Amino acid sequence: MRRLWLIGGGAFAFISIVGMGMGFGFGVDPPDEAADTSLVSTATKEITQSVYRITTPEVYVDVAGEVDIRVVPGQSSNLTIRRESTWAEGAREQSESWNGRWLRATFVCATKGCGASYTLAVPNGTRVLLTGRPRTLTCPRGMCDGI
Predict the structure, then answer these.
(1) 74, 79, 100, 106: which could join 64 in a potential S-S bond, CB 3.0 to 4.6 Å?
(2) What is the domain count for the chain?
């Protein structure tokens, strides 16, 4: 009886595999040549987030180019810097540095629709002092000052 089950199962498997292969093979003739197409546009978005321990009562921010700044209350003793960069085709110039007191950021590109958006989560009582002019600035009252 076991032998009959093995033979029957093997025959069923064979018929199933061959039948499926034949079914997929009939009437399907994929084209070999490519279709006419061209790239209309492309955009890239990159998100980075860094968390630093800070001990200074103020953070200085110097920005240039297409940079937005948003300041929000954060965790005690930590500064969180979140950058969302967006750019389209073409070259871009991007730089960022943090030395424990200064955040310096530049984002310049040749096409529209690009830029960097920074969200700074700073500890309560930490002042943010701006030395450059961001494209936009969102900051709770009393947390940001311009130099």
Answers:
(1) 106
(2) 1
Rounded to whole angstroms, how far apart are CA atoms 118 and 144? Answer: 14
Domain membership of residue 67 as a residue range: 44-140
Q: How confident is the model at residue 44 (pLDDT cuts 50, 70, 90)?
A: confident
What pTM was computed for the model?
0.72
Is residue 113 a part of any domain in this protein? Answer: yes
Domain-embedded: residue 37? no
pLDDT at 19: 61
Amino acid 16 reads S
* Dist. CA 2–CA 11, nearest whole Å: 14
Which residue is listed with tokens 């730089």? 95
Tell me, yes or no, whether 20 lies in a domain: no
39's CB contacts (< 8 A; 6+ apart) are none
112 in a structural domain: yes
18: left (phi over 0), alpha (psi -120 to 50) or beta: alpha
